[in-house]
Amino acid sequence: MVYVTFTVTAILIVILAIFLSVLADLIDGKSTLKDFVISFLLGSAAALPELTTSFTSLIISNPDLAMGNIFGSNLYNIMILAFADIIFRKRRVFFYAHKENAYNTGLIIVLSGVVALSMSMDFSYEIFGFGLDMMVVAIVYFIGMKMVSKYSVADIGERDRYMFDVESVTYQVAVGNESDEKQWTSQIIEKESVETFDRRLKKRLDRYSLKFIWVLFFITASFVLIDGSLLTVAADGIAVETGLGSTFVGSFFLAASTSLPETVSVITSIRLRNYNLAIGAILGSCLFNFINLIITDALYREPLIHSVNDSHLYTVLASMVLLVIAMYSMLRKKVANRWTYLIPSFLIVLFYFISSYILFVNSVG
């Protein structure tokens, strides 16, 4: 029964997350709220599944699920981006990464390094129940975000340009000719209509009033809270019933389930040839996981990092390795051919499963 519950709630959380994002987007178009309010709304809609599972993990006194969900999600997100790059190999997704993507990747690596260092040291000090190491993470996060914002340079003319039509999408993409001189030529890719689930849903809901959309938003958010809680409880049941341990179940099954909406988003963005959006969505999700970590630590009232299984260190270190490979893919300039280009993506996918096996062995051992 616990497996059926987990499967059903995992599928539902994907549908609800997409529905919630569409509603938030409609509110953005219909309301007169300020930009920062809309940004908060959109961010909350995307992050609600992860936050719900983390909070529920604390309620059922299983912080390992929360920790596994957070860093397992980072590991899974980078793997999915690499896997999508392999599937859509002709499009060379990483080739279109903006400089800001590389900066954000570097920040995630630094933040992961701070967490890994704290986990490997006896640094379990706290102030009013808030871990001192989490204060360091929070400071590094906000300083890092400020630096990324300051030094990011939009290289739209160098990499890619997008022109969007309301009903369909017209793309103008700068394409490299792979010569040593790296001369860029522009070409127009034919008008293409990509009728996705969220696009059809938005069209159907657009005719309703703003008040009705708001009501739907809060109802959907409530269902996400309920479904996310049931998903977490089911994951806890699987950990107990199978003996796999909360660390592995949280890092592998729960993290993958709560990251499924990002998977759908990445595939949709790549189909729409909005490659930078696909990369940005994944990195944004990874960055938000550190906010999730900080909030979860504050709610736990004890140093979270030092209250969980030591095996989580493998997940954090593995995510750093995947991020370094992904960063290399974003920054490299010369690629001999398609298969040479794909080597980093293959390495990311391979290392994901190797690290998952290592985590499995150390969790049940």
TrEMBL record:
Keyword annotations: Membrane, Transmembrane, Transmembrane helix
Cellular location(s): Membrane
Gene3D superfamilies per record: NCX, central ion-binding region
Residues covered by the Sodium/calcium exchanger membrane region domain: 3-120, 214-359
Main location: membrane
Entry membrane topology: Multi-pass membrane protein
Molecular function GO terms recorded: calcium channel activity; calcium, potassium:sodium antiporter activity
The protein, known as: Sodium:calcium antiporter
